[in-house]
Amino acid sequence: MYSRAYKAAVTIPPVLWVTLFLLVPYSILFCYSFWSVSPQEVIVHHWNLQNYVELARNPIYLSVLFRSMRIAAAVTIFALILGYPLAYYLSFHAAKRKNLLYQLVIIPLWASYLVRGYAWKTILGSDGVLNGVLQFTHITGALFHLQNFLQQSMHIHATLVPIRFLLYSPFAVVLMLTHIYTPFVLLPVYASLEHVPRNLIEASHDLGASPWATFRRVILPLSLPGVLAGATFAFVLTLGDFLAPLLVGGPSGIMISNIVVSLFGAAYNWPLGAAISFCMLGLVVGLLFATERLERRWKVS
Amino acid sequence: MESLVNSGHQSGRARILGAYAFVVYAFLYLPIIVLVVYSFNGSGIGGFPPSGWTLDWYRQLFADGPLWDAVLDSFIVAIAAVAISVGLGLPAALALDRSEFPGKAVFRRLVLLPLILPGIITGLSLLMLFVGSGMKLSLVTITLGHGTALISVATTEIFAGLQKLERAQEEASLDLGANHLKTFWRVTLPNLRVSIIAAALLIFTLSLDEIAVSFFLIGRDNTLPLEIWSRLRRGITPEINAISTLILLFSIAMILIWYRLRTRTDSRREAELPLLASAIEGES
User: Fold this and answer.
1) Average pLDDT, chain B
2) What pTM did the predictor assign?
3) Do B165 and B183 touch, CB atoms closer than 8 A?
4) Which residues 20-39 on chain A approach chain B with CB closer than 8 angstroms?
5) Whole-angstrom Cα distance, residue A47 to residue A287?
6) Residue B262 has pLDDT above 50, yes or no
7) What residues in B contact A209, CB-CB < 8 Å?
């Protein structure tokens, strides 16, 4: 139906653009990862595996990578713990309020990333809202009094003791990113729950299965594709995040992308930074392939 | 189904789930509420309870020249990014829908990749391209970055629109003697109007908020998120709460318009998935 000219007209411009601005840059990244920097801070176009050897040999990179993966896994799990039951509630119990409640999930999704990070900073800081609440309700004061009571000295002003470990810790990074990715996890889970045929659930009930058995044997397996999609998204984007650690993470919350940022900035070692980025790219693409295959297998069975 | 869900011992379960849902909503909205409330807080950042309601932070904000320069830059970048990503996302969606060419599968993955790839990788790769080709970093490089990364959004949105389009209409137009160009203008484009507007709104909002790619492509002029970022690093002020509140209102307005557009045309379908989620679904 569509002529050759038509097909060429719609195909060639986007293919050229995507080649120039995505394929070529990703390839340059790949090339850089095999080059090096001379002591005079000049990029040496001499092909070798030195950067990758450095990554494998120097324990700093691996340990930060593992920390990033732990943080990403924690965010994914918490986002699922928060998002799955809510999606389930929306799909099966919300009844008439379904649409309203659904839209209430979407609104925070569109609050700016930076804005939400900043809000957590306001909440968690040592002179922040949370500490304000604790002091206002005399909880920190009470804790301090208790400690002082044990030390037999009740005369110190105890209400001025903020909790400092909240902000600038991996905990704060996990909290902020869980807040950001919970809606992203919830939406595909909700979509897959909505597609669970309701007559299957009725059949399961009619055949005498308990609600729990119905959930475990019917609903849960059918919602796994949504879980997988949401989890992949949360994991990958958390893994590559460098703003949350800078905003609320502090030195103990540094992640792998922060190392890349410093290698491209003050540390000036683009090739090593490129090698780390390329490893991340490989990890992401590998993960996408794996989830795609898993999902295809579920669809068949 | 309704009676099944609400019958007997299940209602207790529903109540627990309902309480849990409430807690999750509280978690999702807590920071947003804090942000808005403290933008009116007379005693500055943090502390509890907020006291001395004031509009001072908004007054300071409106007198803040550099911040408004950044806002203007962000708007220019966002408009140009919309032009690039819709201008290329539309043919890309048409190509994916109706053209067969070698490497099509790779092309599809490549176009959608920036949607799921951490922004830092796309940002750095583009930085290397621009530096390597001797281009100076400026708002132009940021625009190219946003425009390219967001083709993914335009493509998914318009591709979804194409799936609902009746090909018979185009066929009829061609049979009645209109050429491809005329058919495109008079049949295809009007049918895709809502998808295109929706994509444009989304891309505009996403570009206004984008920071990970811009972070690496920034030249002399800041976009709004980068301006806020540089101020955050110097210390926090309630002025940021005020601008954040305004951004929030603006994003919500854009999204509500987007959502209305979508639900109006999709009234037959159940609650429509927001684009990003459906894109993830298509991707994995």
Assistant:
1) 84
2) 0.86
3) no
4) 21-26, 28-29, 32
5) 28
6) yes
7) none
Which numeric CATH code is attached to B65-283? 1.10.3720.10
Q: What is the pLDDT of residues A215-274, one digit of tens each?
A: 999 999 999 999 999 999 999 999 999 999 988 888 888 999 999 999 998 888 999 999
| Rounded distance between C-alpha atoms, residue B135 and residue A96, angstroms | 56
- Residues of chain B in contact with residue A202, where contact means CB-CB under 8 angstroms, are 1, 4
Measured between alpha carbons, how far is A218 from A18 in angstroms, rounded to an integer? 42
Quick check: B54 and A129 in contact, CB under 8 A?
A: no
Residue B275: per-residue pLDDT: 45
DSSP, residue by residue, B214-265? HHHH--SSPPHHHHHHHHHHH---HHHHHHHHHHHHHHHHHHHHHHHHHHHH
- What are the extents of the domains in chain B? 65-283
Is residue A170 less than 8 Å (CB to CB) from chain B?
no
Contact present, B245 and B39 (Cβ < 8 Å): yes
Q: Which residue has the tokens 């991996």?
A: A170
| Degrees to nearest 5, angle at CA A285 with A76 and A21 | 115
CB A11, CB B91: distance < 8 Å = yes
pLDDT in tens, B55-110: 888 988 888 888 999 999 999 999 999 999 999 999 999 999 999 999 999 999 99
B102-144 pLDDT, tens per residue? 999 999 999 999 988 999 999 999 999 999 999 999 999 999 9
How close A300 comes to chain B (CA, Å)? 16
Q: Which residues of A touch B278 (CB under 8 A)?
A: 191
From the list A18, A28, A119, which residue is nearest B125 (CB)? A28
Domain A58-124+166-300 = CATH 2.40.160.20: no
Report d(CA B116, CA A286) in Å as an integer.
13
Contact across the interface for A280 and B92, Cβ inside 8 Å: no
Residues 209-268 of A with CB under 8 A from B: 211, 225-226, 228-230, 232-233, 236-237, 239-243, 246-247, 257, 260-261, 264
Residues of chain A found within 8 Å of residue B48, distances taken between Cβ atoms: 129, 131-133, 135-136
User: Cis link prior to B49 (omega < 30° from 0)?
Assistant: yes
Please identify among residues 53-72 of chain A the ones whose CB lies closer than 8 Å to any CB of chain B: none
Q: Would you list the domain boundaries of chain A?
A: 58-124+166-300, 127-163
pLDDT tens digits along A21-37: 999 999 999 999 999 88
User: What is the interface pTM, i.e. ipTM, of the complex?
Assistant: 0.85
DSSP 8-state code for residue A48: -
Distance CA A256, CA A172 (A): 17
Hey, CA dihedral for B109, B110, B112, B113, is it positive or negative? positive
**Band of residue B271 on the pLDDT scale cut at 50, 70, 90:** very low
